Amino acid sequence: MSNMNASKGKENSTENLPSTQTTKVKTGKEFTLTAKEATHDFGNGTKLPVWTYDGSVPGSQIRVKQGDKVKVNLKNELSEPVTIHWHGLPVPNSQDGIPGVTMNAVQPGKTFTYEFTASVPGTYWYHSHQDSVNQIDKGLYGTLIVEGKDEEKVDKDYTLVLDEWISSGESSMEGMDHGSMTSDKDTKDTDDSTESMDGMNMDMEEDMSMYDLYTINGKSAKNMETLKVTEGDTVKLRLVNAGYISHKIHVHGYDFKIVSTDGQPINDPAIIKDQTVTVAPGERYDLVFKANNSGTSYIESHDDTDAAKNMVAKIVYDNSKKANDKLNPKESLPNVDITKYGKTTKSEFSLDTKFDVDYKMNLGTAMKDNSMVYTINNRTYPNTEPLDVKEGDLVKVTLKNTSKSADHPMHLHGHFFQVLSKNGKPIEGSPLMKDTLNVKPGEEYVVAFKADNPGNWMFHCHDLHHASAGMVTEVKYKGYKASFTPDSKANNKPE
Questions:
Q1: N or C end of the chain: which has fewer CB within 10 A?
Q2: Which of 116, 133, 153 is the last residue of a domain?
Q3: Residue where a domain terminates, one of 153, 168, 191
Q4: What is the predicted pLDDT for the residue at 293?
């Protein structure tokens, strides 16, 4: 891995690059997002070259209304091809932004226009899906908010994007501690060439400690995000995890409700007191609380790492004179179990539904050519077995994590799925609709979705180190023909 970037010193130079700007909020129906380089000051003495949409980290927030026909022009001013994937929002397959699968990557100096209808309200995000493990690490992401026609009004609406960085500035693929993870993975099936490590001592599984700089909205330490409120405000927090590590978030000093996850509403959410909410890579959680703790308080990470102490957002009242709340990131608090949260009600699927397709995905780890790979049913992409469906099919998928220590936040493009059971027990709380689900070692979930959006759709782990090392498959609709012609010169890298 150490030889991946021979020009690393040059790339890490911040000379001659403009400084990042404050993230803009863009409203309307037509937008331009420009991918370009900048230098970002994290606030702890660290400055790094970053890749951005519109010169900020995160990139511009796009806010549209449910039902809007949206047009986004992606202008590429970087030295490498890029795309935009609209994470969680169901769009036509041709607009999903997957190089080599739904489009050719947008080349340096070129522009591509995405068009879709913002049909489902909620909190979403967008990011490059070209060599995404590295391009997202460099900062190529932003948020997309679809305002619902009937959504509850709030006084303040804040989006908090969680991320983690390598302060040395090297790429995440360089920093990984298990060899060249992608070696020869696309040359043949791995059935005969991998040695399964399931159940073995997995000390070799990835070490994420090189991510030593945690941020909220690109800010850390003295630059921490400040959320201004007025006494009595109803405040919405949209938590988005754009990184590769799960984060336990505590809203210090407030009772709150989780009103939605991955943009999908929770039925009859209960008041939560003194619990953390774990946000896994790719997931989103919308929290609502009442501003009734006058003074200064915090939203803080309770992760068990030194870097977590800088993952903080300060809540400041407009009449506040002094801080009256102290940070306590080491406080031991229980974590909300989203599979038991809210109240049950009628839903589209149950374990008794008659399904047309029943697919099992064992999410594992293996060695191949002295390198770590991440597998689905002992295979690595592009040789994983696809989920073949017909439009209208009801599809059941069993996700089982057979890795010893690695989480696998599994993300399905183009669809929401309902979580039906965890470790053999039916979900107890609200019907749980998601597009990203974190499957921890030893866990097994059954999920279901309707095949109602024709195309070729990726289904992959959103720890993108795992995706780039093989943990990707596709949902393929029978008879669907992609509307683009793959270009061998486009350098398409879909993982």
A1: N
A2: 153
A3: 153
A4: 86
Answer yes or no: is 205 within a domain.
Answer: no
* Average model confidence (pLDDT) across the chain: 90
End-to-end CA, the chain: 17
Distances (CA, A) of 196 to 54, 363, 364, 409, 493: 44, 11, 8, 20, 26
Owning domain of residue 441:
357-477
Per the domain annotation, does 230 fall within a domain? no
Question: How far, in Å, CA of 383 to CA of 364, rounded?
Answer: 15
Show the low-confidence residues of the chain (pLDDT under 70).
1-15, 171-206, 320-330
What pLDDT, on the 0 to 100 scale, is given for residue 74?
Answer: 98
DSSP structural state of residue 168? T
CB 466 within 8 A of CB 381: no
Is there a domain that residue 194 lies in? no
- Exposed, middle or buried by CB within 10 Å (0-12, 13-18, 19+), for 68? middle
Distance CA 49, CA 470 (A): 28
Q: Which residues pair with 233 in a beta bridge?
A: none
Q: Which of 127, 113, 124 lies closest to 148, judged by CA?
A: 124
pLDDT of residue 403: 95
pLDDT at 3: 32
Q: Give me the numbers of helices (H) and strands (E) for the chain, helices first please.
A: 4, 33
The pLDDT, as a whole number, for residue 221 is: 77
* Distance in angstroms (rounded) separating the CA atoms of residues 41 and 201: 40
What is the CATH classification number for the domain harbouring 459?
2.60.40.420
416 vs 106: CA distance, rounded Å: 27
Burial of 15 (C-beta count, 10 Å sphere; 0-12/13-18/19+): exposed
How many domains in the chain? 2
* DSSP designation for 135: H
Quote the pLDDT of residue 179.
Answer: 32
Give residues with Cβ within 8 angstroms of 428, minimum separation 6: 339, 340, 344
Give the chain's length. 495
- The dihedral built from the CA positions of residue 67, 478, 182 and 371, taken in this order, carries a sign that is positive
Q: What's the pLDDT score for residue 42?
A: 93
In a domain, 27, yes or no: yes
Q: Are 280 and 363 in contact (CB under 8 A)?
A: no
| 23 and 58 Cβ atoms separated by less than 8 Å | yes
Residue 459 DSSP code: E
Pair of tokens at residue 349: 């699927």
Task: Output the pTM of the full model.
Answer: 0.92
